[in-house]
Amino acid sequence: MPGSLIHSSQAGAVRTLALARPQALNSFTSEMLQALLDALDHAAADQGVRCIVLTGTGRAFCAGQDLSDPLVAPDPTPGAPAKDLGLMIERYYNPLVKRLRAMPVPVVAAVNGVAAGAGASVALNCDLVIAAQSASFVQAFSKIGLIPDTGGTWLLPRLVGRARALGLALLGDKLTAADAERIGLIWKCVEDAALPGEAQALATRLAAMPSKALAATRKALDQALLLPMDDALDAELAVQRELGRAHDYLEGVAAFSAKRAPVFSDR
Ligand code: T3D
Question: Using one digit for the tens of pLDDT, what is the confidence trace for 4-48?
């Protein structure tokens, strides 16, 4: 819808959500964060949605927190009270991370341009990140006296190891999409013109897969990072038992045996 902060569109079972403040590099305001949370909730509740693509309008994916937002912009007047950055994190950023990582369907980030600060963290919280060759990732936090947030401290060392995580987070340099792919920060870097098509194809493929098993896979992998091997084995056992009772397992095996394409429907 014109004027809205999140442009939502649907092609088949793929819902595309596009951050839409291009004049400010899609940087986050509280209104846009709330609109994104609402859009994710609507998608999660809609049985016709089986994959989500998150992207940006204009030349950027997202420049992170809008630093001119009065809620966070420091007041230089002597004696003025400091802004409580924890409020935005508590109210919007942390819920957004939790929402993304609990979505019943996979989320693909199609990074069309620069992803900085919380914008980079949001992209990296998606299940698969595909980026245009001209896109880049910037851990911009250190340059303004902050630490990576929106899950960045948890994600970065897990994705690329401590040495590279510290290099990225301390220096705050721009990392090209090609280098992001090379060091394992993202899934894939593609030609600029190919990004929308490749993201849609990937999402269409995921949409045809068993959503419940994909969401359980994300959760199991995230949890396993924190578990001793024995506990991870127990967790696999419990989840596999549950999935084994679901319709999609029946359908997957029936389709395999009949040499036909499966039609998955669990959410
Ligand atoms: O509770 C809390 O709020 C804490 C949470 C914090 C989460 C965070 O995300 S902290 C990190 C915030 N983000 C940044 O520090 C990034 C700042 N921006 C940049 O470093 C660069 O703009 C980019 C690397 C993203 C892009 O560089 P470039 O050269 O392509 O563009 P530019 O010329 O720097 O920016 C273009 C315009 O966008 C410019 O405005 P102008 O001069 O044309 O009127 C610039 O000021 C504006 N802009 C860019 N990023 C932001 C922004 N305006 C407000 N907030 C921004 N984050």
Answer: 999 999 999 999 999 999 999 999 999 999 999 999 999 999 999
The Cα 142–Cα 11 span in angstroms is 39
140 lines ligand 1 (CB under 6 A): yes
- Choice from 32, 67, 141 to test ligand 1 binding pocket (greatest atom count within 8 A of CB): 67
Q: What is the DSSP string of 96-158?
A: HHHHHHT-SS-EEEEE-SEEETHHHHHHHTSSEEEEETT-EEE-GGGGGT----TTHHHHHHH
The alpha carbon of 227 and the centre of ligand 1 are apart by a number of angstroms equal to 37
Give the separation between CA 112 and CA 107, rounded to whole angstroms. 15
Contact 169, 111 (CB under 8 A): no
Q: State pLDDT tens for residues 116-147.
A: 999 999 999 999 999 999 999 999 999 999 99
- Ligand 1 center to 26 CA (angstroms): 9
Which residue has a Cα nearest atom 4 of ligand 1?
A: 85
Delineate the domains of the chain, giving CATH numbers in brackets.
Answer: 2-207 (3.90.226.10), 211-258 (1.10.12)
Q: pLDDT tens for residues 72-101?
A: 999 999 999 999 999 999 999 999 999 999
